[in-house]
Amino acid sequence: MQVCKWGNSLAIRLPASVVHTLQLKEGDEIEVHVVGHRAFDVDRDRSRDRAIKYIDSFRKTLPPGLEVRPRRSKCPVRNIVWSPR
């Protein structure tokens, strides 16, 4: 791998085999961990996936007759509408 100057920082180019193995695409976040003198591991950054999974764990179903209508309002409570059936 080659270290290159990128603005005021340094960057490394990942070989195609690493990109393919980790299924990376442009814009993906990665984690780099130092594992020894002049050695490191590269892995996908899974923090976003963990955060989404955590947020989804709070998702509950609404009671019958309660719906959320998309509306441009500064108060999110106004978007919840009770519509009896």
Provide tags for this entry.
single chain; 85 residues; Pemi-like Protein 1, Chain: D; two-stranded antiparallel ribbon; 2 helices; 32% strand; elongated
Explain the overall architecture.
The chain has two helices and six strands. It is elongated, with a radius of gyration of 22 Å. The mean pLDDT is 80. It has 85 residues and is α+β, with helices and mostly antiparallel strands. It has one domain: Pemi-like Protein 1, Chain: D (Ribbon).
Explain briefly what this protein structure is.
The protein is of the alpha+beta class and 85 residues long.
List the helices and strands and how they pair.
Blueprint: E1 3-6, E2 9-12, H1 16-22, E3 30-36, E4 39-44, H2 47-56, E5 66-68, E6 80-82
Antiparallel strand pairs: 1-2, 3-4, 5-6
Q: Write the element-wise H/E pattern from the N-terminal end onward.
A: EEHEEHEE
Low-confidence stretches: none
Strand content: 25-35%
Q: Which percent range fits the helix content?
A: 10-25%
